[in-house]
Specification:
It is a single chain. The chain is mainly α. It has one domain. Helix content is 86%, strand content 0%. Helix 2 crosses helix 3.
Length: 94
Amino acid sequence: MKKLIVLMPLMSFLSACTPLSREEQLALFHSRCVDYGYAQGTQEFDKCLARQESWHHQRSLHTRVNRADNLNFLERETLRQQELKMKEKQQSSG
């Protein structure tokens, strides 16, 4: 269990840095379920795999949404800065 606690943040960090292939993802999910103590070939093990995949999908979606929000924020901020510059120009010329 200690190994799992140490490896989980590391695996999360690494998976965020480089996309894993489908086979690598399944191997990671399989490893997690084995580490959690589920016996291969049982319904509980299959449910664990499904939960791992669902969690991964939700996290990926959340990451994409956050990136879009950050981009939108940067776009809004850029536009705001441009508006401020235009106002400053108008005030200095007027």
